[in-house]
Amino acid sequence: MAEAERIIGTPGTPDDGGERTAAPGAPGAPGASDASGADQQSTADQRTGRGRRIAVLFAVAAFAYALDLVSKMIVVAKLEHHAPIEVVGDWLEFHAIRNPGAAFGFGGAFTIIFTLIAAAVIVVIFRLARKLYSFPWAVALGLLLGGALGNLTDRIFRSPGIFEGQVVDFIAPKDFAVFNLADSAIVCGGILIVLLSFRGLDPDGTVHKD
Q1: Which tens digits make up the pLDDT trace of 74-114?
Q2: What share of the chain is helix, strand, coil (3-state, %, to 5)?
Q3: pTM over 0.85, yes/no
Q4: What is the spatial distance between Cα 166 and Cα 136, in angstroms, rounded to a whole number?
Q5: Looking at 15, 90, 169, 210, which residue is catalytic?
Q6: Is the Cβ–Cβ distance between 57 and 138 less than 8 Å?
Q7: Is residue 183 annotated as a catalytic residue, yes or no?
Q8: What angle do CA 201, 65, 52 make, to 5 degrees?
Q9: Catalytic one among 15, 39, 90, 183?
Q10: Neighbour-count burial for 164-200, b at 16+ CB within 10 Å, e otherwise
């Protein structure tokens, strides 16, 4: 009996004392742990990439917002109710005004509507940030977010009241509307988004061709 078991082999036990090889893709098989590790590494890399782009978005937004906020504080304290300051002759002046409308003085009768639009833009940007993998899009959305927050702060906290506050504008080119740094950030962000769209680059980093 012992001799027969030695010749036939015990089921599930290698008869020659060697190691068994698992089927490809099965747990413990060569390459199975490698494939799983590669997938986990790819997922980790994607999360890291998105995290970096989101960090860029909020860093750009914070910079644009801070620059706009500080500039308006200086203008209100030093320039409001004073004569305009010539920067480049009469081609460019710093002239403090209060604007109840949208960027560049348009739509003065729709202050609350523009306030709601700015708030909606901020919500949309936060939603887009969840699938953001493109550095140029991060910069563009950061500019939009910083500019929208800058003007929304005026709408909420400045007179004549909450959600009806007038925006502080002070950059006055010759024969052009008076605007501020938040308006500039919004326009630059919008132009960059148009250029990215023409190139077919989406916020998630993919490139499409029509």
Answers
A1: 999 999 989 999 999 889 999 999 987 655 555 545 567 77
A2: 55, 10, 30
A3: no
A4: 32
A5: 169
A6: yes
A7: yes
A8: 45
A9: 183
A10: ebbbbbbbbeeeeebbbbbbbbbbbbeebbeebeeee
